[in-house]
Amino acid sequence: EQRVKGHATAVRGFSFNSTGRLLLSYAAHDLKIWNASTLQPMHALDQQEYADIRFGVFSIADGFIYFNSGSRLYKTRSDLSQAVMRLYDFTESITGGVITPDRSVLIFSAGNKLRLINTRSDNVVQEIQVSAASVENLALVPGNRLATWSSDGTVTLWSIRFGQLVQEPLVRFKAGVSSP
Length: 180
Fold this sequence. Notes:
The chain is mostly beta strands.
């Protein structure tokens, strides 16, 4: 068993780059990029201005990472060698984000909406209202699908085709109230 101290606060999540060689971990207000084999830290971004980070993912060709801070969406070089760019500032807090396996589309939730961003242009290419309740969790599912869980307990399964979500969900059901 190997233990590594990397964050001052609890880790909220992590993701790997496309080759599995780099690991991105994030806590409330910091991001760290690690060598996944040795668990040695390579780069860190730790600033109070980035409070309430809920996701971090590597982009296409692993050259960039996307992450949020509250209601803001950011992008920066994966080696953290350039200034962080603020891409969008929404009225609702961003609660989660995933990137498609081909890394061409970033999907994230804010309020009761899902937004899809083309990672080549950083343009929002689709926005879908999931329900009246806030989307709390989302996850990619095998078979080019996305699952969302809203604060009212609604689980929705979406199909992803050609870099967008099919407007009509595959299935929707109540599964109980989500927990943070």
